[in-house]
Amino acid sequence: MIHRHTHRDRRHVLIGSLLAGLAILPIALMVGPAHIGGPQILACLGGHADPQIRTILFDIRLPRMALAFLVGMALAISGTVFQGLLMNPLAGPYTLGISSGAAFGASMAIFLGMSAWIFPIAALLGAGLSLGTVLALSRAQGDIDSRSLVLAGIVIGSIFSAAISLVKSLSGESLSTIVFWIMGSLSGRGWADVGAALPYLLVGVTGIIVWSRDLDLLCMGDDHAHSAGVDIVATRRLLLFFASLTAAAAVSVSGVIGFVGLVVPHAVRILAGPAHRPLALLSALSGGVLLLYADTLARALSYAGDIPVGVVTALLGGPFFCILLAKGRPFRNI
Length: 334
What we know:
By secondary structure, the chain is mainly alpha-helical. It has a single domain, classed as ABC transporter involved in vitamin B12 uptake, BtuC (Orthogonal Bundle), CATH 1.10.3470.10. The chain is built from 14 helices and 2 strands. The protein has helices at 2-30, 38-45, 51-86, 98-111, 118-138, 146-170, 175-182, 191-210, 212-219, 222-227, 232-254, 260-272, 276-300, 309-327; strands at 139-140, 143-144. Strands 1-2 form a two-stranded antiparallel ribbon. α4 runs antiparallel to α5, α5 (118-138) crosses α6 and α5 (118-138) packs antiparallel against α11 (232-254). The chain starts with a helix and ends in a 7-residue tail after the last helix.
């Protein structure tokens, strides 16, 4: 009975996320500084629209929507892995310093005046440096201790945050760009950014799905996982790598967007259960839809200036997580 109930709940989450995603698509296409109505969108799809409207829809809004979904998906699925792997309901890319490292790499690229296509590479290098340092600090007798990982991540994240502040203080004309990017924004992004992040996201998400069953065994304890034939050290490192790669790819094109990787896995776990393969897939879908809604809201409120989507997710996700925390929900089924 419990097994059937869990499957039914998963279907409900899947159907609800799909319907919510379909509902926001036409609204996201219409919302923006230049209002475009439904008839104009239909005419554009039929090939009879004004060239300017076609440019706005297909070269500005549609790639931004695609990127919002991909970034939300990446943050949510990486948060799912970090929480399960570390057995810590507050774990995530920020806890391990991954986002701070990626943000530092991109900030340095902006500060040095590098080309825009360098930003994702610089962010990925920063995230790799952060993860490598955290692993080196937390390694004990050839294994990876979860508590040491979290502590090392907090320390390294603080160091990179301080380094970002130093870069900002030394910046001249690039200061506003760095500040706006760190706040998390999809403004001005296009198909080139989607193409830059997509290969890394495909590798990271595929790896997470493939090794998700082993993550279930690791959550049952090292002894249980070892008896089931899981290489504990190698599996942990692989999952950390794939989750970090996915989060870094998201940060490299969007900046720092908080709470998606923290709140979405909690909410989906409450509704659909703790099994990590369906949890990862449903969290990815729900995270993508959530960030698409958040970015649409940011564009709807941008009449006084472009509002970073990271501000919207913090304002919405913070209170929601506080409610979950007050009820004790984040600490169940982890």
